[in-house]
Amino acid sequence: MRNNLIVAFLLVTTVVFAQEKELSQTQKDSIKNLNAAVINLQNVAITPLQQSPERQPEIKGTVLFSGKKNEVLKLSSFTANLTTNNAREVFSRVPGVTVWENDGSGIQINIGVRGLSPNRSWELNTRQNGYDISSDVFGYPEAYYNPPLEAVETIELVRGGASLQFGPQFGGMINYVLKREQKKAFTFETQNTLGSYNLMSSYNAIGGKINKFSYYAYNHSRSADGWRENSKYKVRNSHLFMEYAFTKDTKLSAEYTSMDYKMQQAGGLTDQQFKDNPRQSLRERNWLGTPWNLFSLNFDTKISNKLTSNTKLFGLIGERNSVGFTATPNLADAIKPSTNDYANRRVDRDFYKNFGIENRNIFSYTIGKNINNLAFGVRYYKANTRRQQEGTGTTRSDFNLETLSKYPRDLNFNTENIALFAENQFKLTDNFSVIPGVRYEYISSTGNGRFGISSGNDIPFQNNKITRNQPLFGLGMEYKIGKTNIYGNITQAFRPVLFSDITPPAVTDVIDPNLKDASGYNADLGYRGTIKNYLNFDFSLFYLSYNNRIGGVRQFVNNDPNQGTFLYRTNLGETVNKGIEGFVNLNVTRFLEIENTIGNIDIFSTVSFIDSRYTDFKINSATGTAPNVVISERNLSGNRVENAPRYIHNFGISWSKNNFSSTLQYKTSGKIYTDANNTTAPSANGVTGLLDGYRVLDLSAEYKFLKNYNIRSGINNLTNETYTTRRAGGYPGPGILPGEGRTFFISIGAKL
Questions:
Q1: Confidence of residue 44 (pLDDT cuts 50, 70, 90)
Q2: pLDDT tier, 28 (very low <50, low <70, confident <90, very high otherwise)
Q3: 177, 192, 326, 733: which has the fewest C-beta neighbours closer than 10 Å?
Q4: Strand ranges in 107-195 using DSSP code E only, listed in sequence order
């Protein structure tokens, strides 16, 4: 791996010098003069290509992006299955993204970067229009809600150096920017889809701008029976946005988002069951529902020519409700002869309430002849989670949350957070910037309630107040060479112990009571940009250090291998994720200057090589049976990190001419271990064991006609590959979770 990194660095360096060499001194002087002439227009983003992903300008609004690895996915610039939020297609142009495919509903988008866990995108700071949308940013940062991608204009990702302006997360930040209408007084958009397994979807939106007033509203409803047995779902998303512009530079807006869904969970499979029939399901009584409500009040103003400010007041009220038979797949959910009925199901419920206020500012000032920029801000956030688990439910089969007695586990968790941050872009020359930064996090967490019931008596849970005062530092740089630039940064990261870490949702997991917070840092070094009108690229090296990482170790029940296994969740020492990430998009017909004849043909590739290993990982192992149990200590240094494939590659070709466009893309991902022991043989319950890599082919197309109308269609998993992306220890069902087989959709829409 080290040799690969050296070779990649030499290749990037060679391209840099080659790019410099093709500019004459006169051209360099002209570019320098041009940069000086437009220096006051730095807040205007000019994108030289329509190819996606694009990149953020140095400054956008009140956010400083200089020196950071970032991507902007403009969803209208490529074809993909947006109806079911197909993350495999949408993120194919972003290198190093791991996607977990729990089901085909697309209700939850599960992505991770650089070998980090994709579980409900919890290693990322997940936002919509710039504000948080996860359950509890520091207590339970899982994204049970994602907007329907048919309503999304762009997806913004920032990796590595995102921690200073957006929080301490290891993965960075992802922001879903919703559509708006700023030109006409009234527009109407509709997109209606039919597909395999009774898929029906309808997206309808209105929007407009009347003088100083702007508005946008949509409703998205979707339902299907699902590719697997027992996987039907029904989801609704609604959104309302209103804005009033007092002046050109001062605006006040408000928005509200509501989501509700009911989803049947097909559960996991053992390896043999998966091999026999991946579409089968042994659970018809398992359900999940998550009503979600988001609120936001946004104020933008330009205080002076040098100072721009944004303030967001936001909040969330939501729930996570599940009911089902949650045993591992080697245990049947069968009618008991003694009662002539099914077993009682388990009911788990969470109730989330949080709010926050966040202020961001950009201050521009001059040192010498160069304009420098200071990004600074403050944030206050407070969240409450009530967690009720292990309730005894009914023996019914529908989505019924009734319990027959009080919840054995009934807990309250509270989080309070104050953050201050500042990053400064020092322009040492017209082309070279250095960006130091600092963030201070105050995090306070408390918990209390009932942890269980023993002999009819409550087992109290009292988590003393835990307070953290965590400073984070970072340093970035960027050097421009024409329309390309070299960028780099190193930034500290931090992750406190989550509420979910100490109260296992997985029915097979056991938790270490002495968990510690995780800390570490991200580093990037890359070269990116555009060449003429046909090449768009970004190649980089990354290094991620993650100390006290929490994960699962396979252990024996009662120290006896004959009694089965379970996952013991504990601090696993330090992990280091390092590798290469690359993206290139070549417009072949522009390069050959034949686009006017045959249209635009783009070929794209995203490649990532990830070496993700434990560097210090001591565990106690038990072998033998009582009374001859032997306890020994092992250091698993060198083991691969679970759920981190060694490579993730995407290759695609797109063709567009006149009103028709289509894309064929191929994804291949390497094998993964599903526990820190690097267990190869699958366990009898399907919870641990090596998972093979997979290859999936997707095809999508769009035809626009009569100016305002479109027909979209696609086939996902064109070759009907049998594959899986993950194993689960609990929800959405212990065992292997199969990826979907071949599915088809066709959609007709209009924007009037």
A1: very low
A2: very low
A3: 192
A4: 110-113, 124-128, 131-132, 152-159, 172-178, 187-195
Structural domain contains residue 28: no
Query: How far apart, in Å, are the Cα atoms of 103 and each of 168, 186, 224, 514, 591?
Result: 30, 37, 11, 34, 40
Distance, in Å, from the CA atom of 530 to the CA atom of 120, rounded to the nearest integer, reads 33
Q: Under a CB-based contact definition with an 8 Å cutoff, are residues 100 and 116 in contact?
A: no
Strands (E), 594-723: 600-616, 618-623, 630-635, 647-657, 660-669, 694-705, 709-716
Instruction: Find the DSSP H helices in 143-265.
Output: 163-166
Helix count and strand count (H, E) for the chain: 8, 39
Residue ranges with strand state E in 13-109: 59-60, 63-64, 69-74, 97-100
CATH number, domain containing residue 260: 2.40.170.20
Is 43 a domain residue?
A: no
- Give CA–CA dist 37/402, Å, rounded: 68
Residue 480 in any domain: the answer is yes
- Count the residues in the chain: 752
Question: How far are the Cα atoms of 27, 40, 271, 276, 688 from residue 370, in angstroms, in the given order?
Answer: 21, 10, 62, 67, 57
Is the pLDDT reported for residue 606 higher than 70? yes
DSSP per residue over 427-440, as a string? ESSSSEEEEEEEEE
Q: What angle do CA 490, 651, 4 make, to 5 degrees?
A: 45
H or E stretch covering 19: helix 2-21
Averaged pLDDT for residues 598-604: 95
C-alpha 426: how far from its chain's center?
31
Q: What's the confidence (pLDDT) of residue 9?
A: 37
Secondary structure E strands in 160-250? 172-178, 187-195, 199-210, 213-224, 233-245
Q: b/e string for 423-434 if b means 16 or more Cβ within 10 A?
A: bbbebeebbebb
- The CA-CA-CA angle for residues 508, 345, 687, to 5°, reads 25
Task: Give the Cβ contact number of residue 733 at 10 Å.
Answer: 28
What is residue 572's predicted lDDT score, i.e. its pLDDT?
Answer: 81
CB count within 10 Å of CB 284 equals: 17
Neighbouring C-alpha atoms within 13 Å toward the C-beta of 575: 25
- Count Cβ atoms within 10 A of the Cβ of residue 264 and give its class: 0-12 exposed, 13-18 middle, 19 or more buried: buried
Range of the domain at 719: 67-751
> Residue 51's pLDDT is what?
61
404 vs 323: CA distance, rounded Å: 13
Write the secondary structure of 621-642 as one string of H (helix), E (strand) and C (coil): EEECCCCCCEEEEEECCCCECC
Which helix (H) or strand (E) segment holds residue 568: the answer is: strand 565-571
Higher pLDDT, 634 or 3: 634
- For 342-375, the pLDDT digits (tens) are 999 999 999 999 999 999 999 999 998 899 999 9
Domain count, the chain: 1
Question: Rounded to an integer, what distance in angstroms lies between the CA atom of residue 650 and that of residue 262?
Answer: 33
**What distance in Å separates the CA atoms of residue 570 and residue 514, rounded to the nearest whole number?**
8
DSSP 8-state assignment for residue 107: S
Nearest-angstrom CA–CA distance, 685 and 675: 14
Residue 186, strand partner residues: none
Residue with tokens 């009234």: 186
Bridge partners of residue 393, in order along the sequence: 403
Q: Does an H or E element contain 3, and which? A: helix 2-21
The residues, ordered by sequence, that sit 6+ positions from 539 with a Cβ below 8 Å of its Cβ are 8, 11, 12, 526, 527, 528, 580, 581, 582, 583, 584
Tokens of 721: 């590959």
Q: Hey, CA dihedral for 312, 317, 323, 327, is it positive or negative? A: positive
What is the per-residue pLDDT for 635?
A: 76
Element (H, E) at 441: strand 432-454
> Residue 305 falls within a domain, yes or no?
yes
Q: Which residue has the tokens 């030499």?
A: 10
Amino acid letter, residue 615: T
Cα dihedral sign, 31-33-36-42: negative
Pairwise CA distance, residues 713 & 654, whole Å: 14
